[in-house]
Amino acid sequence: MKKLNYLLLFVFASLLFACSSEDEKPKLMEKNVTIEVEMGGGYSDYLVTFSVHSMLSGTSTFVAPVLGEPSDLDWTQVVEQGNTYTLTFEPESPSLLVESSTPIHSLGLVFNAVHLGGETDDSFQPLSAEVRVLTNGSVFKEFSYEALAPGETSVPLAEEISVK
Asked: Is 80 exceeded by the pLDDT of residue 8?
C-alpha cells in the first residue's frame, strides 16, 4: 500500500508540473526585414510592379514598408487598411530596396514585369530578377524571376514569408 501511495504521489506531482496555469502562446520571431531586388536583362523595356503586403508585428499590428531605392520614387498605391503598398514603374536602374520600418514576423510580396511593347531584335534579353529577403542583415530567402517573351501573359512571383 505504501508503494501505491508513492506511485500516486509521483503521478500527481508529474501532472501538476506538466500542466501550466498560464496560457502559453508561441513567441513570434520579429526581425528587421530588407527586400532587395536586382534586375538584369532588358529591364528598361518593362513595366515593373512590386507589391508588399501583410507586414505584421505582434499579433496584428500593420507595419509600413519604407522604399529605400530608387530614392526618387514613391509608392504608386497605398491601401493602409489592407497593409498593401504597390510600386509600378519603368526601371531606370537595376536595383530596388524596401525595408520594414520596425521588426516584423511575416510579410507577403509580389513581383511582376510586363513588356512595354515595340519591336525586339535577336539581341533582346527578357528581364530577370533576383529577389532576396534579408532578416537582420542576413539572407533569409531568395527567389528568381524570369519575364516571359513579349506578348505572352506574365506570371508573377508571389510569396508569403514567416520570419524565423
From this structure: no
